[in-house]
Amino acid sequence: MATLTEIDDRGYTFETHFQPGQYWTMAEKDQVRNELRRVGEACLPIMPNYQCFSDSPSAFDDKIVIIARQEPASRIVAFTSASLLVIDDFGTVLDVGLTCVLPEQRRQAFQFRLFARLLTLICKKHPKGIWVTNISGTPSSLASIALAMTDVFPSPDVAVPQETHLRIAHAVSLHHRAHLSISDDAIFTPESFVFQNSAIPGSPWHRDITDPQYQHRHVATNDYYLAMLAQQPGNEVLQVGYVDPPKVQSIIASRYGGSI
Questions:
Q1: Binning pLDDT at 50, 70 and 90, where does residue 1 land?
Q2: What's the pTM value of the predicted model, to 2 decimals?
Q3: Where on the phi/psi map is residue 160: left (φ > 0), alpha (ψ -120 to 50), or beta?
Q4: Of 19, 26, 27, 23, residue with least CA distance to 1
Q5: For strand 130-136 and strand 187-189, is the pairing parallel, antiparallel, or unpaired?
Q6: Terminus-to-terminus CA distance in the chain, angstroms?
Q7: Does the structure show a pLDDT above 60 at 21?
Q8: Reduced 3-state DSSP string for the chain
């Protein structure tokens, strides 16, 4: 059922599924969705009917799902689910989507291990790179993308959006809000790429931005996004950047010696 299955040196099985909605049976979709929802319920205050949790028959058609299972029960302990967005008159953009890790498994570096596999696959399919989006209301998530990607706006390195940034961001705001779980009531600010009131209390994405678990260890980048988010509680930041294969490969090599 998986595009690729591998067992790492810690005994976890990783599955990579590329656009699985195009080849999974309905029974397989239901089975995996229910398994993913169980992880989501342990991570989110409210279960959204979006992304890989969605009950839409086509929910998995544009997804890249990386799953970590713990043997011998083969239960899902962590996953990341990204989407391929088609921007009219532009092309395909990768939205990094969401990552969920069971609370008792959060010291296993799953976020990096899942994301490394996602980006390795993307670099193979797009050897020249691909534009990417991310929306978040936590400094740690925003800082991770800024440090892993190239030409990210907003970020400490890119103060003003260029034409491509603006084109993708406006397309997301106008046509792809549901894909990124952005409320129709959220107000998009084109100067800063902030969506105002998109993660208000009661939202699945509302977080205490000062909570230590949502801080990145790269202090300067973390504080840049913390300052943006602190201007108005409940805001989220949309990032637009580029997956640069040599940079991705360098990051993975520096952390795992080229092996994930």
A1: very low
A2: 0.91
A3: beta
A4: 23
A5: unpaired
A6: 21
A7: yes
A8: CCCEEEECCCCEEEEEEECHHHCCCHHHHHHHHHHHHHHHHHHCCCCCCCHHHCCCCCCCCCEEEEEEEECCCCEEEEEEEEEEEEECCCEEEEEEEEEEECHHHCCCCHHHHHHHHHHHHHHHHCCCCEEEEEEECCHHHHHHHHHHCEEEECECCECCCCHHHHHHHHHHHHHCCHHHCCCCCCEEECCCCEEECCCCCCCCCCCCCCCHHHCCCCHHHHHHHHHHHHCCCCCEEEEEEEECHHHHHHHHHHHHCCCC
Tokens of 166: 């603006």
